Amino acid sequence: MTIGGSSPDGRPDRLSMDESVGEMVSKLTTDLGQLTRQELALAKAELQAEAKKAGKGAGMLGGAAVAGWMVALFLSLTVMWALDEAMDLIWAALIVAALWGVAAAVLATSGRKQLQQVDPKPDQTVESLKEDARWLKTRKS
């Protein structure tokens, strides 16, 4: 009985009497298990890196929100009191609110852009799985 492949001298490899089909299946099962564990480890590493980037972006948005809130509060009061000298307090408050609306839009756009750079697809794992599938096809034929 011949097995795919050939020996160094060019003759086809032969199944040795000592190696049974059961042993070959056992080796194949072990190899596939190890391959699966390696692929899962690669996917996990890739996803952790992407999650770290997402966490960074979310943290920046959270920090911007807190800082923006404090600045908005104190600066708004200061500007409103300053504008109250030149106009009615109601108009001063509307002007300050419009300025903070623009600031909020800029922060939201920056944070959204940061989060859009996150790629949740584990590209290396997908490519590696494709290579494994090609390898298995060549082993079958």
UniProtKB/TrEMBL annotation:
The UniProt annotation puts the region (Disordered) at 118-141
One Pfam family cited in the UniProt record for this chain = Phage_holin_3_6
The domain of life for this entry's organism is: Bacteria
Keyword match rRNA-binding: no
Which UniProt keywords are given for this protein, alphabetically ordered? Membrane, Transmembrane, Transmembrane helix
Q: Where is the composition biased (Basic and acidic residues)?
A: 120-135
Which residues are listed as membrane-spanning? 61-83, 89-108
Q: What is this protein called?
A: Phage holin family protein
Q: Which species is listed as the source?
A: Kribbella qitaiheensis
